[in-house]
Design goal:
Blueprint lengths: L18 H12 L12 H13 L22 H12 L5 H4 L2 H22 L17 H18 L3 H5 L4 H19 L7 H17 L3 H21 L6 H24 L16 H14 L3 H11 L7 H19 L4 H4 L3 H11 L5 H31 L3 H10 L9 H22 L8 H17 L4 H8 L2 H9 L6 E5 L3 H9 L4 E4 L10 E5 L3 H7 L5 E8 L7 E7 L3
Parallel strand pairs: 1-2, 1-3
Antiparallel strand pairs: 3-5, 4-5
Helix pairs in contact: 2-3, 2-23, 5-6, 5-8, 5-16, 6-16, 6-20, 8-9, 8-10, 9-10, 9-11, 10-11, 10-14, 13-16, 14-16, 17-18, 17-20, 19-20, 22-23
């Protein structure tokens, strides 16, 4: 028995978003965050430090990426190889900018793969809208394109995507591989997908990329999901997938299982660690996870939940079951990683797919509510960003200017025309989008996500233009590294104790310093020693402190935040 579909879509509503709008919105979302932004603290800067050192190493050492001879905390070969290769291939660009080029392309791959995944899922028979008695329902291809456009907008609208997807770290590479895998899985269940070898190639690319990015277990689970869905459909007698793809994809996934297992044992910590049962016995852990799920997946998380409910009678259909299992696997991985937002990031492509399938089932009042919330939320955010920027430039209003001076001491704001012009342009574009949305236009499936996607892009561009110098000062490490470099004699090295990989990378890149670990034989030749105040107690038992005298303390922002202690050798 074929159950009626909950989607009611006319041919007029299935019109696609103009391609120039789609591409322009993607460029405005992808490019800011890669241009002009310093590598920020922790994962971003630590991964860049490994890439920088790898780019200066012979090829034979690329199988063991290190920083000062130490294995990176985040396992993965592929992201470090991409960054190091870009630094070598683009010597005319600053190393920090060159390393970002492949990661900008990876974000584009994520968006495009999500679009194609939903396009193939939406062409399935069970995903099609209701057929009208006298005609006028959406044409299957037009409907699939409109749904894919909606998924593109939904992914851009998600709040959790912006910062992590613009890093030069392991996570954007994993995200792109997951999106490619979702595209490959969707092709398996599309009767219109040609060339089965493309499906197999995409599957291999996804599973291999995930394994080489430090997630072999996730590569195995996601690689086997299409086979699981195919088995469930065959058990229910509802199989409607391309036979060659259904046979070859599990074979490819099985080969990747072996490769992933070998890789998992070859990188310390890259395979599996004990599930943190004790961590999830605490109430505050679940509360923190709940908050993360709400804001990180907003607004597509709620739309995805509604899609699961609205299409519940079609739970065995690929457009429902495949994204649902995809999100479920990632959520289990998130629990294993103690509620990490970096793991939850990998669920966004599948959540965007589910959110797209929610749109044809929403009432007009609900879509209007989504529009009003997006309008108020992102307009308010833009006003706040502009107000604080004006306060930084002019000192008026006084209170925001005082707050900036208190939170970011030693920051000297300056007017940058290169940041002001694009900020003004996207603000005017936002006003145009609001005027367009308020006007009377033909209905479209994706209309209710236009304000959310453009509003998210607006705030991201404003942050990466107007606030970029402030954010580089507060979240980067250039200020501290340059202060250390100013106190080091030319040609001398710096010994460090207890500093993280990110802090060491900042000293190397921003300070241009040769850094060694203390205590060691190499550190004996250095006239300066840098230690974090939190590690000073351990330093006294590891280094003979009578040979050193304190010359200065360098706070990251304020004295009560991270502070470095810099010592000078007391005697030759």
């Amino acid at each position: 028995m074929i159950r009626p579909t909950p989607a009611i879509v006319t041919q007029v509503a299935a019109r696609r978003l103009p391609r120039w709008v789609l591409v322009l919105l993607g460029l405005f979302y992808v490019v800011p965050g890669f241009l002009g932004r310093d590598p920020w603290r922790n994962e971003d800067l630590a991964a860049f430090g490994v890439m920088l050192e790898l780019s200066q190493s012979p090829i034979r050492e690329w199988l063991t990426p290190t920083l000062l001879g130490e294995t990176p905390a985040r396992a993965g070969w592929l992201p470090y190889w991409l960054g190091a290769w870009a630094i070598r291939a683009l010597p005319f660009l600053p190393a920090g900018l060159a390393a970002k080029v492949p990661f900008a392309l990876l974000l584009g791959v994520t968006l495009a793969s999500t679009w194609y995944a939903v396009f193939h899922l939406a062409r399935g028979h069970s995903a099609q809208p209701v057929s009208f008695a006298f005609g006028g329902e959406a044409h299957p291809i037009d409907y699939a394109r409109a749904m894919a456009d909606a998924a593109w907008l939904a992914l851009i609208a998600s709040l959790g995507l912006a910062m992590l997807a613009h890093e030069t770290s392991v996570d954007p590479a994993r995200l792109a591989c997951v999106a490619v895998g979702l595209h490959a899985a969707a092709r398996c269940f599309s009767t219109h997908a040609r060339h089965p070898w493309k499906t197999v190639a995409l599957s291999w690319l996804s599973s291999g990329g995930l394994a080489l990015s430090g997630a072999p277990g996730l590569a195995m689970l996601l690689g086997l999901l299409p086979a699981v869905v195919a088995v469930l459909q065959s058990r229910l007698g509802r199989g409607s997938f391309d036979f060659p793809s259904a046979v070859l994809l599990p074979s490819a996934a099985g080969a990747m299982v072996a490769a992933a297992a070998v890789y998992g044992w070859s990188w310390p910590g890259g395979w599996w660690h004990d599930f943190p049962w004790a961590y999830w016995e605490r109430y505050d852990a679940w509360r923190s996870l709940g908050r993360l799920l709400v804001w990180f997946t907003w607004p597509i998380g709620l739309l995805a939940l509604w899609a699961l409910w609205a299409w519940r009678r079609h739970w065995s259909s690929p457009h429902w079951l495949l994204p649902f299992l995809w999100v479920l696997v990632v959520l289990l991985s998130t629990l294993r990683d103690r509620g990490s937002d970096r793991t939850l990031l990998l669920a966004l492509p599948a959540l965007a797919a589910l959110a797209a399938f929610a749109l044809p089932t929403l009432r007009r009042s609900v879509t209007a509510l989504i529009d009003w919330f997006a309008l108020l939320f992102f307009t308010g955010g833009a006003i706040i960003i502009w107000t604080i920027w004006i306060a930084m430039m002019t000192g008026t209003p006084a209170k925001p200017a005082a707050n900036v001076a208190r939170l970011a001491p030693n920051f000297e704001p300056s007017f940058m025309l290169a940041g002001f012009v694009p900020a003004l342009a996207v603000t005017l574009a936002w006003l145009g989008v609001m005027a367009w949305r308020a006007g009377r236009h033909r209905p479209a499936i994706w209309k209710s996500l236009v304000l959310s996607a453009t509003g998210s892009t607006l705030c991201w561009v404003l942050l990466m233009t107007l606030w970029l110098p402030l954010l580089n000062h507060g979240m980067g490490q250039r200020f501290m590294s340059e202060r250390v470099a100013a106190a080091v004699p030319p040609g001398d090295c710096v010994a460090t104790f207890g500093l993280s990989h990110a802090q060491i990378a900042g000293l190397q890149y921003h300070g241009g310093l040769r850094v060694v670990r203390a205590p060691s034989a190499l550190a004996d030749a250095c006239s300066r020693l840098v230690v974090d105040t939190a590690d000073y107690v351990h330093l006294q038992g590891a280094v003979a402190m009578d040979e050193w005298r304190l010359i200065t303390k360098i706070p990251r922002l304020r004295d009560n935040r991270d502070t470095w202690m810099m010592f000078e050798r007391a005697s030759p």
